[in-house]
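agent> Task received from the user: take the single chain below, predict its 3D structure, and emit structure tokens. No templates, no multimer pairing.
agent> Plan: (1) validate residues, (2) run structure prediction, (3) serialize to tokens, (4) report one or two observations.
agent> Step 1 OK, no nonstandard residues flagged.
tool_call: predict_structure(input=
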Amino acid sequence: MTTGPRTHSKPPTLAEDLLLLLFQPGSGTVASENTLFYVLGGAVLADLALGDHLTTAGRGRVRSVPDSPPPDRLLRPAWDYLAEKPRGVQTALAAIGPALRQPVLQRLITRGDIDQEPRKVLGLFRSTALREGRTERRARLLADVRQVLVEGAQPPARVAALVALLSASGTLPQFHREIPWTSPVITRAKELERGDWGADAAAQAVTRTVTATVVNSAIVASTVLPRG
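)
tool_result: status=success, residues=228
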């Protein structure tokens, strides 16, 4: 009899959701490894914006909202960095992104969303393989993405940001079995990248602007770096 999934006291961050979607259960690998730090950094900035901890500062720059640090320790270093002075988004992504993969992955393992499996290579060397956990959270996230892109559902701000960042990673074609790579899907994904989230536009204005800026910077980075 298997035990139930482990729990984690904090709700998952946007970076955790994004990395979980980018994890490929069939191969045990993470898609778009070479540009992963840009999209994970983008997820952190978008999360700060969603929590009203980050705002725009003009000319493509972002800054922390004074005296409003995020409670989550994964997000705090980015807030501290942007509290020093406003930064260009690409500068911020390059500064905060590279250190994110391991702590974000570890959170997914702690939650039971991804499991580690010890293996031996050539019967001699110990290695660790990744496989999908038993929480089924990845399937639920993928269903949310499908509802927005395929079924035309109006997304909450968090889901809209997640889909926009997933699209910016360039990996959506890999989900063709669950999300057919059709012209309407491509069009909707690009709309979300630009911040066209539909209803509640006024309330989400800063989040949409920040996310669109982050996504555009991640796309620029992806065009000059080789994909994994």
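agent> Step 4: summary for the user.
The chain has one domain: 14-221.
agent> Done.
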